[in-house]
Design goal:
elongated, Rossmann fold, disordered N terminus, 469 residues, Hnrnp arginine n-methyltransferase1, PH-domain like, seven-stranded antiparallel sheet, 23% helix, six-stranded antiparallel sheet, alpha+beta
Length: 469
C-alpha cells in the first residue's frame, strides 16, 4: 500500500504543498484558509519605510583614492529614511530641521561597499557619500535592503529557487495581516508552550545572541529578552515586520531587539548566534516549507548552539470514518447529474472524485476512530539539511487493533524544545488540547477492509513543490 499525503495551506509559514488544499470548513474554523488578498508592499520583504540615525560625509574621487582615513568632518546626527518604490528604494538624509542634505535612489546599479562594522560608502558618479550608522545591526538592516535592490534578475536565493514568485507574494501578503498574527498568538497552547520553553531554559538565553526566524509580531523575540538575551535579531519577510518594529520601540527594547526585514535566505547578520528560535511548523508538520528556512538559518548558528524547537515527531495511524467518506462522495455526486439546466455533467464526476479525495481534511476527531497504534517519524532539526525535506518517505507497519474499513490515515505532530534545564513538548495530538494546527486526515478513494490482528504496511510520501495555493 502506498499513500501519497498531500498537505494543503497551513497557518504557519507556507510552502510544503503537493496537490491538495485544506478543507474550507476547517480552514474557516482556524481563521486561516485561503490567503487574504491585500495590497502587496512596494518592495517584497521591506516595510513601508525604514528610519535610521546616521552621520554623513561626502567624499570626492580624489579623497577616495588617497591613503588617509575617511573621517567624518561634521559628526552631526542626521535622519536617514528609506522608502521602497517598486523594485527600487529612495534614500533621503535630512537634518534636525527636516532639510534634505542628501538623496539617492537605491537600484541594482548602485555602487556601494561596507567600511568597517558601522559604515557604508555609496558612490554616485564621481562623488561618494559615507554613511555611519549607530550600530552594526542598523548597518546590517540597511545593507539587506540595498542587497535586495541590487540583486540581478538571474540571481536566486534558496527561497526563490523553491518558491514560485506569485506564490511567495500571496504567502507574504497572507502573513502580513495582523489578523493572521493574532490567530497564532491567541493559540494558548502554542504561545504558552514557547514561553515556558524559553523562560524555563533561561540559562540558554542569558547574555546570548538569538536569531528569531520568521518572527511575525516578534513575540518570541520578546520572550528571549525576558529570558535574558543580550541581542535578538528578528527576521521577517512579510510586511508585518514594520509592526514588529513598532512593538519593539513602544516596549523600549530597541537596544535588545533588531528587526531585519527580509528572507533568512537573503539577509546578512552582523554576527553568529548562540540560539535560533522559530515557529516553522505547518499542517502535518511539513506544510508551507518553513522548516527549510529554519534549517537554512543554521548557517548563522555557532558550534554547540541550540535550536528551539530541537526536533519533531510526526505521528500517523489508520482510521475509520464512514460519515466523512460519505460526505466526500456526496460532494462529488453533484457532477453525476445528467440534466443540470439541460447540461449533462456526468463526464466530470470521475475528475471531481479525484479532486475531492486528494484534499487533506484539517479538523479534529475522536481517537476511537483510530484502528491501530501510531507510527512515529522523527526529524532532528539539529542534524537535518534542507534537501532532506524535499522528499520525505515514511514507511509504516500497523498491527490492526480492530476489524473494519480503513478510510485513510490520520496525522499530527509533536515538537520538543531541548534545553539545558528542561525539555518542553508541544503536542497537536487529538488527545491534547486543540491547537490551530488541528489534525489532518487523508482519505482513500477505495477503503480497505482489515481484520483485527492483521498487518497493514506501506509508506507515506511527501513531495515538496513551489506553489502556495
Amino acid at each position: 500500500m502506498k499513500v501519497l499525503a498531500l498537505p494543503g495551506p497551513s497557518p504557519s509559514r507556507g510552502r510544503f504543498l503537493a496537490r491538495g488544499a485544506a478543507s474550507g470548513r476547517a480552514a474557516r474554523a482556524r481563521g486561516r484558509g485561503a490567503p487574504t488578498m491585500a495590497a502587496a508592499p512596494a518592495l517584497a520583504g521591506v516595510p513601508a519605510r525604514q528610519h535610521y540615525r546616521v552621520q554623513l560625509r561626502f567624499v570626492t574621487e580624489e579623497q577616495l583614492f588617497s591613503t588617509g582615513p575617511l573621517l567624518l568632518s561634521n559628526p552631526t546626527t542626521l535622519r536617514l529614511e528609506v522608502h521602497p518604490a517598486g523594485e527600487e528604494a529612495d534614500a533621503t538624509v535630512t537634518d534636525a530641521d527636516g532639510v534634505c542634505v542628501f538623496k539617492c535612489s537605491l537600484t541594482r546599479d548602485t555602487e556601494c561597499c561596507c567600511v568597517g562594522q558601522e559604515s557604508i560608502l555609496i558612490t554616485l558618479g564621481y562623488n561618494s557619500a559615507l554613511l555611519k550608522f549607530e550600530s552594526p545591526a542598523e548597518l546590517s538592516a540597511f545593507a539587506n535592503t540595498l542587497k535586495r535592490c541590487r540583486r540581478e534578475k538571474k540571481e536566486y536565493s534558496a527561497f526563490s529557487q523553491r518558491t514560485e514568485e506569485a506564490s511567495a507574494a500571496q504567502y507574504f501578503q497572507f502573513y502580513g495581516c495582523l489578523s493572521q498574527q493574532q490567530n497564532m498568538m491567541q493559540d494558548f497552547v502554542r504561545t504558552a508552550t514557547y514561553h515556558k520553553a524559553i523562560l524555563q531554559n533561561h540559562t540558554d538565553f542569558r547574555d546570548k545572541v538569538v536569531l528569531d526566524v520568521g518572527c511575525g509580531s516578534g513575540i518570541l523575540s520578546f520572550f528571549a529578552v525576558q529570558a535574558g538575551a543580550r541581542r535578538v535579531y528578528a527576521v521577517e519577510a512579510s510586511s508585518v515586520a514594520q509592526y514588529a518594529e513598532m512593538l519593539v520601540k513602544s516596549n523600549h527594547l530597541s537596544d535588545k531587539i533588531t528587526v531585519l526585514p527580509g528572507k533568512i535566505e537573503e539577509i546578512s547578520l552582523p554576527e553568529a548566534v548562540d540560539v535560533i528560535i522559530s515557529e516553522p511548523m505547518g499542517y502535518m508538520l511539513f506544510n508551507e516549507r518553513m522548516l527549510e528556512s529554519y534549517l537554512h538559518s543554521k548557517k548563522w548558528l555557532k558550534a554547540n548552539g541550540r535550536m528551539f524547537p530541537t526536533f519533531s515527531d510526526i505521528h500517523l495511524a489508520p482510521f475509520s470514518d464512514e460519515q466523512l467518506y460519505t460526505e466526500h462522495h456526496s460532494r462529488a455526486n453533484f457532477w453525476y447529474q445528467q440534466c443540470f439546466y439541460g447540461v449533462n455533467l456526468s463526464s466530470l464526476r470521475g475528475a471531481a472524485v479525484d479532486e475531492y479525495f486528494r484534499q487533506p481534511i484539517v479538523d479534529t476527531f475522536d481517537i476511537r476512530i483510530l484502528m491501530a497504534q501510531t507510527v512515529k517519524y522523527t526529524v532532528n532539526f539539529m542534524d537535518a539539511e534542507e534537501a532532506d525535506l524535499h522528499r520525505v518517505e515514511i514507511p509504516f507497519v500497523f498491527q490492526m487493533a480492530q476489524s473494519g474499513l480503513i478510510h485513510g490515515l490520520a496525522f499530527w505532530f509533536d515538537v520538543a524544545f531541548v534545553g539545558s534545564l528542561v525539555t518542553v513538548w508541544l503536542s497537536t495530538a487529538p488527545t491534547e488540547p486543540l491547537t490551530h494546527w488541528y489534525q489532518v486526515r487523508c482519505l482513500l478513494q477505495t477503503p480497505l477492509f482489515a481484520k483485527e490482528g492483521e498487518t497493514l504496511s506501506g509508506k507515506v510520501l511527501f513531495v515538496a513543490n513551489k506553489r502556495f495555493p
